[in-house]
Amino acid sequence: MMSRSLIKGVKYICPLAFSFLVFFATIEARALTVDYTLDNIFLNNGNQMTGAFTWDYNAGDFENGTGTFTELSIPGTLREISELNITFDIANSIEFTLAANLNNRGIDVTLFLSQPLTPTQSAPIDLTRSTFEVTDPGLLTGDFVSGSVSLLVTPVPLPSAFPLFGAGLAALGFVGWQRKRRLQKAG
Question: Among 3, 33, 42, 175, which has the minimal tally of Cβ within 10 Å of its Cβ?
């Protein structure tokens, strides 16, 4: 036969265990974001390509995320980000092309990566395979001489749910302590 104290202990442990499971299940299912910058990307003619993008992904599925450029400057063109087709292959390359190629004006820039990007790692560009050609409005071609896609490290804020979870645990502990104290006085 189970003792009364064991039954009471199970009453307290089950809700606590359930709370832990719910808390950690919500953490695992959340979407994550990593920020990257185009760092020191120079052409052999001295022009620099700059930009920054965010990569949104689900925990455990980095490769199938989506990228969005927030800043971008390509030498030889004044095109807005919205006018470009930007294709991410986060393990291999980032490609920029002009959405509407009119009057032989175009943008064909591909940054091949020497290694895959990860949520914790930057990647240098492959200088021999990366290409740059802009014919908008004039012709500008060149070879890349340096550059990388760098991870932008930002402080991670403490999730607002964590202090609430801690307060709930403290409240449960306090209620259990009071109950135990009352039972000791009555017994």
Answer: 3
Report whether 49 contacts 38 (CB < 8 A).
Answer: yes
Exposure string over 50-87, b if 16+ CB within 10 A, otherwise e? ebbbebebeeeebeebebebeebebbbbebebeebebe
Q: What is the pLDDT of residue 169?
A: 81
CB 108 within 8 A of CB 133: yes
pLDDT in tens, 74-120: 888 888 888 888 999 989 999 988 765 655 568 889 999 999 999 99
* 68 closest CA partner among 54, 52, 88, 87: 54
Evaluate whether 65 touches 58 at the Cβ level (below 8 Å). yes
Instruction: Look at residues 73, 71, 85, 84 and name the one whose alpha carbon lies nearest to residue 49.
Output: 73
Class of domain 31-152: mainly beta
Q: Three-class SS of residue 174? A: helix
Q: Within a 10 A sphere around the Cβ of 94, how many other Cβ atoms?
A: 24
At 44 the three-state DSSP class reads coil
Residue 135 has what pLDDT? 83
In tens, the pLDDT along 148-170 reads: 999 987 665 666 667 777 778 88
Sequence spans of domains, the chain: 31-152
CA distances from 120 to 104, 105, 116 (A): 40, 38, 11
